[in-house]
Amino acid sequence: xxxxxxxxxxxxxVGSQLLQHIVSCRSLHAKLGVHLRVVGVSDSKxxxxxxxxxxxxxxxxxxTEVCRVKSDGSSLSKLNGVGECQTFSNSESRTEVxxxxxxxxxxxxxxxxxxxxxxxxxxxxxxxVDMGCCIVLANKKPLTSTLEDYDKLVSxxxxxxxxxxxxxxxxxxxxxxxxxxxxxxxxxxxxxLSGTLGYVMSEVEDGKPxxxxxxxxxxxxxxxxxxxxxxxxxxVSRKALILxxxxxxxxxxxxxxxxxxxxxxxxxxxxxxxxxxxSMHTSSCLLLTLSQVMMKIESLYPEEMGxxxxxxxxxxxxxxxxxxxxxxxxxxxxxxxxxxxxxVCVIEGTRCEVGIQELTKNSALGxxxxxxxxxxxxxxxxxxxxxxxxGAGAGNDTTAAGVLADILDxxxxxx
Length: 415
What we know:
Blueprint: E1 2-9, H1 13-24, H2 26-31, E2 34-42, E3 46-50, H3 60-71, E4 85-89, H4 90-104, E5 111-114, H5 122-130, E6 134-137, H6 147-153, E7 160-161, H7 172-181, E8 186-192, H8 195-205, H9 210-219, H10 228-231, H11 234-246, E9 251-258, E10 264-270, E11 293-297, H12 312-319, H13 324-336, E12 339-348, E13 351-360, E14 372-379, E15 387-392, H14 396-409
Parallel strand pairs: 1-2, 1-5, 5-6, 6-7, 11-13
Antiparallel strand pairs: 2-3, 3-4, 8-12, 8-14, 9-10, 10-11, 12-13, 14-15
Helix pairs in contact: 1-3, 1-14, 8-9
């Protein structure tokens, strides 16, 4: 039986669902000859680890209790004294995780699984790489940190998996990697990578006001508590940046400016450096001047309606309706051209943009309805008819399943 020790960082919706998947799949994994040994679990306040990280694990009863505690909104510190485990405060967690990584990284092996939404895990992950650990990510922030951090995390490509950072459990990363490895160059990627914005754009296409659609999406649980977190486009931009870096674009988020109508346009610029040989795919890296804009991100609300200037309630009750006419006009103009509007990312050559685009009705993106994600990939082999990847691109269950598949995908690295 092959044993894979792991530490889970982040035990919110996705992390808890991952633990439930691990417990429920024990018999399946046993048939595959694999056992996932959960050594530790952390949230933002506490860390719970097995009493003997080298030999023992957090058993399934304790993992189930972890999920129950988190579903109640409590901290893992509540598990102090429960079962054969030790609990540590947030200030002690980093040292303890790195201690386990040092103990197991280059002996039995260890997977650091990041299902948090924090940028504070980057330091631990980087040190884990130096200690021989494997990295599995659902958290987008480590891969959209500085290029220096990115290069370190991907320095050993066989040791990192991050399928769930883009498209939840959809086979986006694996498909792109297979295309590149086969020598089929990717010329263009167009994708609707936000279930929320996909739903919004397909609904306004049917003539509904943007304000009504956003409120409906919020009531259905499609948006964040503050819908501006979705409407800003920043979540899509992080996914687009991950894809662009995967294609060898040496770019990073560096500044914010505003266009003439007041909507934030985030510039991601080239850092005027050559990609190191640790980058995912260096052959297609572009060397551009610092002044050349690499990415533009369109926000669906102006700066004066931002979180620092308007409460959520004021935005929903007064600000949002002021955006209706602009979107209605854009929908009408697109329709006159025989097209539809979709909020997408476009990566092509030196162009990398995130925002509303006019697309043909008969394309996969043009036919998109509801909250699915759709990605069109154009290559030499897929030049006229793109490779299309479509399906549920959000949800704790789907994302956790993608993380679990990533962990199993690196099992050959373990003794």
